[in-house]
Amino acid sequence: MNIYEVNLLSFKRKENGDYYSYKELIRELVPYVKSHGYNYVEMMPLTEYPFDGSWGYQTTGYFAVTSRLGTPKDFMALVDAFHENNIGVILDWGPAHFPKDEFGLYEFDGAPLYENKGWDRIEHKEWGTRRFDYGRTEVQSFLVSSACFFFEKYHIDGIRVDAVASMLYLDYDKKPGEWLPNQYGDNKNLEAIAFIKKLNDAVHDAYPYAIMIAEESTAYPYVTRPVKDGGLGFDYKWNMGWMNDVLSYVKIDPLFRKYEHNKLNFSMMYAFSEHYILPISHDEVVHGKCSLLKKQFGSYDDKFAGDRAFMGYMIAHPGKKLMFMGAEFGQFKEWNYKEGLEFFLKDYEKHAKLDRFFTELNKLYLAEPALFGDDDGWDGFEWLAADDKDLNSLAFVRKFGGEKIIVAINFSGTDIKYRFAAEKGNYKVLFDSDKKIYGGDGKRRKRVYKTEKKEWNGKPYSLEVDLPKLSFIYLKNK
Fold first, then answer.
1. How far apart are CA 258 and CA 278, in angstroms?
2. Sequence-ordered list of residues with C-beta below 8 angstroms from that of 18, at least 6 positions apart, any chain
3. At a CB cut-off of 8 Å and minimum separation 6, what does 334 contact?
4. DSSP annotation of 253
5. Which residues of the chain have pLDDT under 70?
6. For residues 200 and 226, what is the distance between their CA atoms, to the nearest angstrom?
7. How far apart are CA 26 and CA 13, in angstroms?
8. Which is the most buried residue in 13, 212, 364, 465, by most CB within 10 A?
9. Cross-strand bridge partners of residue 98
């Protein structure tokens, strides 16, 4: 799964600021997603909402796609167009809260009806919104029906449930004294947990192909385990820990990265505890967090090289992938929901080459089962060098069906000759981020590497590769 996260209202804007409609996005968005090597698109919320600044996450119309872009049949045609191009469609959906607009669900009959009446559970203070009463069967039916409606009528393939952590915990965004424990004396929202299980079972029973994804940022156990086995029943969970660690790492001056090397390898301590998606989402490119390219440390050229090195790690790391729109060509500005993406940047060489890099790396990912075939266990992954902190480097193998791809990444600011243990054999260069066509320096000339009978890390054979600064190489066994 290689997911392109998009905000339909700000992917592109017309010269007068108008939106592209659902119909127009068939022409503008569908071929773009396909040509860049993504096989899923995830749309930020389209359930009707009044406040543009909520990006769709403060929903009032739980059975309506936003009329800003056209009619329901227009949206159906957009979904069909994606499907005709073998691209799955995932919708963001927010059952965690609803706004206090009087024309919405807020105090629907003059008093709290959809919302929980408890003084400590009625409201999300941080968002200024109301919280559903998940213990009421009528509310459960309303929300489950909303989710199923989009599978039934619009033929979507998946739902990403927003803000699951805020549903699971009674003390979410609350200080001591602002919440009451449950009947067992702890902070779990038992009614919300039961609702989530009911939701996932109901959707999977009715639509066995459905993909249910949790945006869940805590260590709550068994999020992606089936309900019958004691889990919440989601298919995937966003790996927020990996995202936070690696994005904080790339901001560090390479001179000091050795002190934070655990931010690169710690994720493998829990990588198989859930079925994960690695997300670089809209949340990471707003509110002063900088775009993915601008997060990278160093000079203008170093930022592009660092971006490529980061992507080499992300694509090869166990877990499905999600990337927010604009990263593929290196938008420097943060995302602004009021504007379209800055596609004019592709007229500049560095950005055009980065766009080519993303496209070819994405297509390689979809073409090589070793990179995705076994994301859920150690049979598909093996460390070759996890602790080379002084070199700011990593080496590991992805494996599936007898095929193996060696991944070596140099996050340092200097070129190195990098040696690591490897099984005896010849390995061809499958992908090289330092190629000039991607904006690199083109320092590496070798196309095939052969192991030497030189013991390394307790293994009889090893491999030495030229690894320019802020670059990576994929090698495949011949």
1. 23
2. none
3. 285, 286, 287, 288, 289, 290, 291
4. -
5. none
6. 9
7. 14
8. 212
9. 130
Q: How far is CA 59 from CA 40, 96, 176, in A?
A: 23, 10, 29
448 class by beta-carbon count within 10 Å (0-12 exposed, 13-18 middle, 19+ buried): exposed
Beta bridge partners of 99: none
Q: Which residues are catalytic?
A: 162, 215
Distance CA 136, CA 113 (A): 10
Closest Cα to residue 42, out of 81, 71, 78, 8? 8
Burial of 440 (0-12, 13-18, 19+ CB in 10 A): buried
Work out the end-to-end distance of the chain between its first and last CA atoms, rounded to an integer number of angstroms: 26
- Distance of CA 414 to CAs 303, 389, 390, Å? 14, 14, 12
- For position 222, what pLDDT does the model report? 98
| Beta-carbon contacts of residue 281 (< 8 Å; ≥ 6 apart) | 5, 238, 322, 324
| Count of H-run helices and E-run strands, the chain | 11, 20
Is residue 158 within a helix (H) or strand (E), and if so which, with residue range? strand 158-161
- Residue 83 · residue 112 · CB < 8 Å: no
DSSP symbol at 40 = E
Q: What token pair was written down for 353?
A: 């080459």
Spatial distance between the Cα atoms of 409 and 395, rounded to a whole number of angstroms: 7
Q: Measuring CA to CA, which residue among 12, 11, 84, 4 is closest to residue 37?
A: 4
Q: Which residues of 277-291 are buried (b: 16+ CB within 10 A; e: fewer)?
A: bbbbbbbbbbeeebb
DSSP 3-state of 120:
coil
Q: Dihedral, CA atoms, 45, 50, 55, 60, nearest 10 degrees?
A: -40
Amino acid at 135: G
CA dist., res. 403 & res. 418, Å (int): 23
Residues 6+ positions from 199 with CB-CB distance below 8 Å? 95, 140, 143, 144, 147, 161, 212, 233
Residues 56 and 45 sit within 8 Å (Cβ to Cβ) = yes
Q: What is the H or E stretch that residue 144 is in?
A: helix 137-154
- Asked if residues 5 and 42 have their Cβ atoms less than 8 Å apart, the reply is yes
pLDDT of residue 445: 76
Q: What is the structure's pLDDT at 444?
A: 75
Among candidates 396, 222, 236, 195, which has minimal Cα distance to 315?
396
CA distance 84 to 72: 18
Q: How many angstroms separate the CA atoms of 167 and 169, rounded?
A: 6
